[in-house]
Amino acid sequence: MSAARRTSRSRTTITVEHDRGVFMISVAAELAEMHPQTLRMYEARGLIEPKRSPKGTRLYSRADVDRLRRIQEMTGELGLNLAGVERVLELEEQLGRMVGRVKALERRAAQLQDEIACLEDRRDEVRADLVRYEARPGSEIVRASDVRPQRRTVQADRPSH
């Protein structure tokens, strides 16, 4: 009997940032299902900007591949030409920036609402401490909490005989 030889395989998973350039042009083209020359043309038009290695090799990220697929969808399925794709991508980027600004303004508005609520609370506390007085010689300003409420007597109108 021969001894059965077992080999164990291990699987290593590497997580790479979505925007880190890791794919050479041939791999990126295959992932995006297009010809490498198309990627070069898109780069020349400014539709995509791959990272560069120290030696100048184009390195495409997962985000680049997603963008290439989006461009392919717009040209193939939606029938846009590259000028239209450029405009759509510009508008999407502008919209993304504006959404970010709106979120920042909403956060700031919430902060200001909190500050207003605190100021209103403080104003109410300060008002509770104030008492009207008539300035007379020898009179003092005192806190409301130190003043006893004055009772006013109301005289009912009595009929005259």
Automatic annotation (TrEMBL):
<feature type="region of interest" description="Disordered">
    <location>
        <begin position="142"/>
        <end position="161"/>
    </location>
</feature>
<dbReference type="Pfam" id="PF13411">
    <property type="entry name" value="MerR_1"/>
</dbReference>
<keyword id="KW-0238">DNA-binding</keyword>
<dbReference type="InterPro" id="IPR009061">
    <property type="entry name" value="DNA-bd_dom_put_sf"/>
</dbReference>
<dbReference type="GO" id="GO:0003677">
    <property type="term" value="F:DNA binding"/>
</dbReference>
<feature type="coiled-coil region">
    <location>
        <begin position="88"/>
        <end position="136"/>
    </location>
</feature>
<dbReference type="InterPro" id="IPR047057">
    <property type="entry name" value="MerR_fam"/>
</dbReference>
<keyword id="KW-0175">Coiled coil</keyword>
<feature type="domain" description="HTH merR-type">
    <location>
        <begin position="22"/>
        <end position="91"/>
    </location>
</feature>
<dbReference type="GO" id="GO:0003700">
    <property type="term" value="F:DNA-binding transcription factor activity"/>
</dbReference>
<dbReference type="InterPro" id="IPR000551">
    <property type="entry name" value="MerR-type_HTH_dom"/>
</dbReference>
<protein>
    <submittedName>
        <fullName>HspR, transcriptional repressor of DnaK operon</fullName>
    </submittedName>
</protein>
